[in-house]
Amino acid sequence: MTKDLSIHIKIWFEKKGESVIGPGRMAILEAIDQTGSLTQATEMCNISFRKAWKLINEINDKMEQPVISTARGGKGGGGGTTLTEYGKKLLKQYRKIQSVLEGVVSNPDIWSEI
Questions:
Q1: DSSP tag of 11
Q2: Is 44 in contact with 35 (CB distance < 8 Å)?
Q3: Which residues of the chain have pLDDT under 50?
């Protein structure tokens, strides 16, 4: 194996030729799943609240079902944002595919001809 070479992959899902899910959108969905808050998720991902809503709306517009659900804050404020079951399945499937592909590219046998 050539020690100074490495393979990197970037995957995204497309629908009708348009990107729906990629690393950036997955990162915000994962952060929402971890925090239960869009505000906290945007801080984790270092993006604006407006940009996060744009990314989420783009996903929702292209997919069959919404990927998040929101709850309004009550008297004390502080609603919440969570992934829908569909959003969780989408995130899980993306990570599963990513893991399989990373396993392939990290396999030293693919370097056997070099």
A1: -
A2: yes
A3: 1
